[in-house]
């Protein structure tokens, strides 16, 4: 076979091979997808079914447990009555939104400077950022506790937020994205007389929207779900965010009734699940953007 | 890249608002731990006294610390498990089949829910009259199963690992999905044409191209494994020989009131983190994951 013929036959050969494989594998592929989906979601489905079953007698029997028996909102009503659920949600919202805002305000200029400016100590800063990325933040729990107690801020939202807002990860992400922006656009703004601050907020940030939203959503979710640090600094129950408060309640006085606990689990997971389902288009797109 | 008209201190001004809290809450704790670990700390007087290496000696004599160290290192088993699971899921949902987006979303769901919330549900799955035993009974794999998965030291830590993999696999799946997009299509087609099977293509085309993602994911998963705290706290409360390093740090500081001992354990943890990171960089190469070098 000559080279030309081979080149002509190439796409067709690849095509047939793919189709043959696909036809064989498609049902199996869906079966695998479905099986994994069941594995990944069964605790949620079970908790939901248990929460909806007014009659808890069948909740331990597989597979009947996945179908609500005598369905009703009874347990959810009890959770809302007995746990200051909306106080927790409000606290979580306040804490998470402030953390997101502060993180973005700090990480954007720092990332921009690392990407587009020369300043003394830049290499040092980069190295330090790298180093702190290698160790988990939780290692600092004791020194940070001492620092904040020295400042007299224990028990405040400021203390619960502060150690989380200087995100090395966020600076990295913004730096990577800013570096990939077309230099011409930034240069044009400079030629028009914009200073660096204006170039950043008016040109670079709007062009980096995927990175900004991804960082915002990531920060929000991790602040919303954070347990260790807020539980160390906040002791007043009415100030606790959802992840801390509900956990204390579930392992304390409510642990006696499985239905009550699982209904509370569903309620506690619901806000962030809904939030995710609505934002997943941007979130997954942002993560999958090769630059971010 | 110095720009004409941008003075050197402009960059510093841009970085400063980040740098202050970063230095105070991320860098200072690392140094402070080193310093504290050589001290006796008296909480009431806020006084410190040099005690040599007594804290480190105390660590080697502490049964809890040794177990915590052993368990945290055992937890590193989740790192390869997560990579294989995540890559498998990513390969599964990569093709643009109808509904693939929904499956991606479902696989990601455990990631967004707080550990302190979902682990509570898992506790009821693992308990002796729980859902797992009921499933085993129903499937006839083990009729009448009544194992207390979280109460037995042989199983409890592995149960926590299973939970940790379930909780985090979606996160790495997304990172691998992103990496898979960067694998050149032409290489794949060429390998197909040469008659390479699925495993051969995976081994010789996909995996080499994924190297930077593998490095990133193993680094993140290693850190995640070494800082295991809440998974175990919720599932077993640290009983059944499941205490971890970070639980020891937390317990020594906030229940035992010995901040020096806690700091020494944190230093050990930090050294392990750096050592493992160094090994991974050497093994998977440094190219690419942090973008352009400064």
Automatic annotation (TrEMBL), chain A:
<protein>
    <submittedName>
        <fullName>Carbohydrate ABC transporter membrane protein 2, CUT1 family</fullName>
    </submittedName>
</protein>
<comment type="similarity">
    <text>Belongs to the binding-protein-dependent transport system permease family.</text>
</comment>
<feature type="transmembrane region" description="Helical">
    <location>
        <begin position="260"/>
        <end position="284"/>
    </location>
</feature>
<dbReference type="GO" id="GO:0005886">
    <property type="term" value="C:plasma membrane"/>
</dbReference>
<feature type="transmembrane region" description="Helical">
    <location>
        <begin position="152"/>
        <end position="172"/>
    </location>
</feature>
<keyword id="KW-0472">Membrane</keyword>
<feature type="transmembrane region" description="Helical">
    <location>
        <begin position="203"/>
        <end position="224"/>
    </location>
</feature>
<dbReference type="InterPro" id="IPR035906">
    <property type="entry name" value="MetI-like_sf"/>
</dbReference>
<keyword id="KW-0813">Transport</keyword>
<keyword id="KW-1133">Transmembrane helix</keyword>
<dbReference type="GO" id="GO:0055085">
    <property type="term" value="P:transmembrane transport"/>
</dbReference>
<keyword id="KW-0812">Transmembrane</keyword>
<feature type="transmembrane region" description="Helical">
    <location>
        <begin position="124"/>
        <end position="146"/>
    </location>
</feature>
<dbReference type="Pfam" id="PF00528">
    <property type="entry name" value="BPD_transp_1"/>
</dbReference>
<feature type="transmembrane region" description="Helical">
    <location>
        <begin position="85"/>
        <end position="112"/>
    </location>
</feature>
<keyword id="KW-1003">Cell membrane</keyword>
<feature type="domain" description="ABC transmembrane type-1">
    <location>
        <begin position="89"/>
        <end position="279"/>
    </location>
</feature>
<dbReference type="InterPro" id="IPR000515">
    <property type="entry name" value="MetI-like"/>
</dbReference>
<feature type="transmembrane region" description="Helical">
    <location>
        <begin position="21"/>
        <end position="46"/>
    </location>
</feature>
UniProtKB/TrEMBL annotation, chain B:
<dbReference type="Pfam" id="PF00528">
    <property type="entry name" value="BPD_transp_1"/>
</dbReference>
<feature type="domain" description="ABC transmembrane type-1">
    <location>
        <begin position="69"/>
        <end position="280"/>
    </location>
</feature>
<keyword id="KW-0812">Transmembrane</keyword>
<feature type="transmembrane region" description="Helical">
    <location>
        <begin position="232"/>
        <end position="253"/>
    </location>
</feature>
<dbReference type="GO" id="GO:0055085">
    <property type="term" value="P:transmembrane transport"/>
</dbReference>
<dbReference type="GO" id="GO:0005886">
    <property type="term" value="C:plasma membrane"/>
</dbReference>
<feature type="transmembrane region" description="Helical">
    <location>
        <begin position="259"/>
        <end position="279"/>
    </location>
</feature>
<keyword id="KW-0813">Transport</keyword>
<dbReference type="InterPro" id="IPR035906">
    <property type="entry name" value="MetI-like_sf"/>
</dbReference>
<keyword id="KW-0472">Membrane</keyword>
<protein>
    <submittedName>
        <fullName>Putative chitobiose transport system permease protein</fullName>
    </submittedName>
</protein>
<comment type="similarity">
    <text>Belongs to the binding-protein-dependent transport system permease family.</text>
</comment>
<feature type="transmembrane region" description="Helical">
    <location>
        <begin position="73"/>
        <end position="93"/>
    </location>
</feature>
<feature type="transmembrane region" description="Helical">
    <location>
        <begin position="155"/>
        <end position="178"/>
    </location>
</feature>
<feature type="transmembrane region" description="Helical">
    <location>
        <begin position="105"/>
        <end position="125"/>
    </location>
</feature>
<feature type="transmembrane region" description="Helical">
    <location>
        <begin position="12"/>
        <end position="36"/>
    </location>
</feature>
<keyword id="KW-1003">Cell membrane</keyword>
<dbReference type="InterPro" id="IPR000515">
    <property type="entry name" value="MetI-like"/>
</dbReference>
<dbReference type="InterPro" id="IPR051393">
    <property type="entry name" value="ABC_transporter_permease"/>
</dbReference>
<keyword id="KW-1133">Transmembrane helix</keyword>
């Amino acid at each position: 076979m000559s080279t030309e013929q081979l080149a002509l036959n190439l796409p067709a050969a690849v095509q047939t091979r793919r189709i043959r494989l696909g036809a064989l594998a498609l049902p199996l592929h869906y079966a695998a997808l479905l099986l994994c989906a069941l594995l990944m979601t069964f605790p949620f489905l079970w908790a939901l079914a248990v929460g909806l079953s007014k009659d808890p007698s069948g909740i331990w029997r597989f597979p009947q447990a996945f179908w609500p028996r005598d369905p009703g909102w009874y347990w959810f009503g009890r959770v809302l009555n007995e746990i200051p659920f909306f106080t927790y949600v409000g606290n979580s919202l306040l804490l998470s939104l402030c953390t997101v805002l502060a993180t973005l305000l700090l990480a954007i200029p720092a990332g921009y400077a690392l990407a587009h400016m020369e300043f003394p100590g830049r290499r040092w800063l980069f190295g330090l950022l790298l180093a702190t990325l290698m160790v988990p933040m939780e290692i600092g729990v004791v020194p940070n506790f001492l620092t904040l107690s020295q400042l007299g801020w224990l028990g405040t939202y400021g203390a619960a937020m502060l150690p989380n807002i200087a995100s090395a990860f966020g600076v990295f992400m913004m730096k990577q994205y800013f570096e990939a922006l077309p230099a011409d656009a930034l240069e044009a703004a400079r030629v028009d007389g914009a200073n660096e601050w204006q170039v950043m907020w008016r040109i670079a940030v709007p062009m980096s929207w995927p990175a900004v939203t991804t960082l915002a959503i990531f920060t929000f979710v991790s602040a919303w779900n954070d347990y260790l640090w807020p539980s160390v600094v906040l002791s007043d129950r009415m100030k606790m965010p959802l992840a801390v408060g509900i956990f204390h309640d579930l392992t304390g006085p409510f642990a006696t009734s499985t239905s009550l606990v699982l209904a509370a689990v569903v309620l506690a997971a619901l806000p962030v699940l809904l939030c995710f389902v609505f934002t997943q288009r941007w979130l997954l797109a942002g993560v999958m953007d090769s630059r971010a | 890249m110095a720009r004409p008209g941008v003075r050197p201190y402009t960059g510093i001004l841009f970085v400063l608002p980040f740098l202050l809290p970063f230095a105070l809450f991320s860098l200072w704790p690392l140094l402070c731990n080193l310093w504290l670990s050589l001290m006796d700390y008296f909480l009431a007087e806020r006084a410190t006294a040099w005690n040599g290496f007594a804290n480190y000696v105390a660590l080697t004599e502490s049964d809890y610390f040794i177990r915590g160290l052993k368990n945290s290192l055992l937890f590193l088993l989740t790192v390869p498990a997560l990579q294989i699971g995540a890559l498998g899921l990513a390969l599964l949902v990569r093709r643009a089949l109808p509904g693939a987006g929904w499956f991606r979303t479902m696989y990601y769901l455990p990631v967004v829910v707080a550990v302190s919330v979902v682990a509570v549900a898992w506790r009821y799955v693992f308990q002796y009259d729980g859902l797992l035993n009921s499933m085993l009974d129903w499937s006839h794999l083990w009729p009448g199963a009544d194992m207390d998965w979280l109460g037995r030291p042989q199983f409890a830590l592995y149960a926590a690992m299973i939970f940790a993999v379930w909780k985090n696999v979606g996160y790495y799946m997304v990172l691998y999905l992103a990496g898979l997009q960067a694998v050149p299509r032409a290489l794949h087609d060429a390998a197909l044409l040469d008659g390479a099977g699925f495993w051969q293509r995976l081994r010789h085309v996909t995996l080499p191209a994924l190297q930077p993602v593998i490095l990133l994911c193993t680094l993140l998963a290693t850190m995640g494994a070494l800082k295991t705290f809440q998974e175990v706290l919720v599932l077993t409360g640290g009983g059944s020989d499941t205490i971890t390093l970070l639980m020891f740090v937390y317990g020594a500081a906030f229940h035992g009131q010995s901040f020096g001992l806690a700091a020494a354990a944190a230093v050990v943890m930090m050294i392990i983190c750096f050592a493992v990171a160094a090994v991974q960089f050497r093994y998977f190469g440094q190219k690419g994951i942090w973008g352009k070098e400064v």
